[in-house]
Amino acid sequence: MEPSPAALEVHKDETIRLREALSDAGVAGTLASETTSGRITTAHLYVDPDQRHRGIASALARHALSQSRAVVGIYCGFTVDYVQAYPEWNVMVDISRSAFAATRTTRNTNSGR
């Protein structure tokens, strides 16, 4: 069952540098990120296996992107996939492909190698 938008809350906790997606069951997912001078760098996204395919990862990525006032540095494979699926974010991202595990995007990019 997909959570309704009202049942999912995303908030930022700067003390531990995480954005957390909270559902009625507790923390459903996290996105490690850091903010420096308005620039957000995203590093790693995790969603509880029992909570996957419900839009939680997308909500975390969207929250981080919408909170930035400057270019976003992305080191998280899922967030790269999200940005490429929603090109309106392309204007404000700086994607580094050197530091993430294979995802749909990196597999497609490296398919000729």
Q: What is the architecture at the second tier of CATH?
A: 3-Layer(aba) Sandwich
Radius of gyration: 14 Å
Q: Largest sheet, if any?
A: 6 strands, mixed
Under CATH, the topology can be stated as: Aminopeptidase
What is the level 1 CATH name? Alpha Beta
Uncertain spans, ≥5 residues at pLDDT below 50? 98-113
SSE class: alpha/beta
Q: Going by CATH, what is the homologous superfamily? A: Gcn5-related N-acetyltransferase (GNAT)
Query: Could you tell me the number of beta strands?
Result: 6
Question: What is the percentage of strand-forming residues?
Answer: 25-35%
What share of residues is helical? 10-25%
What's the mean pLDDT score? 78
Assembly category:
single chain
Keywords: Transferase
Domain N-acetyltransferase: 34-90
Pfam families: Acetyltransf_CG
InterPro entries: Acyl_CoA_acyltransferase, GNAT_YJDJ
Walk me through this protein's architecture.
One of its GO terms (molecular function) is transferase activity. Keywords: Transferase. Residues 34-90 form the N-acetyltransferase domain. With 113 residues, this protein is α/β, with parallel strands linked by helices. The protein has one domain: Gcn5-related N-acetyltransferase (GNAT) (Aminopeptidase), CATH 3.40.630. Helices cover 24% and strands 33% of the residues. The protein is built from 3 helices and 6 strands, in the order ββββαβαβα. A 6-stranded mixed β-sheet has the order 1-2-3-4-5-6, covered by helices on one side. α2 links the parallel β5 (72-74) and β6 (93-95). The chain is globular, with a radius of gyration of 14 Å. The N and C termini lie far apart (39 Å). Mean pLDDT is 78; it is low at 98-113.
